[in-house]
Amino acid sequence: MSRAIDGTKRKNHRKKILKLAKGFRGRRGTNFKAAKDAVVKALCSAYVDRRDKKGVMRSLWISRLNAACRAEGISYSRFIDGLTKANVVINRKALSNMAIEDPAAFKEVVAVAKKAIGA
Question: How much is the CA Rg of the chain, to the nearest whole Å?
Answer without folding.
Answer: 26
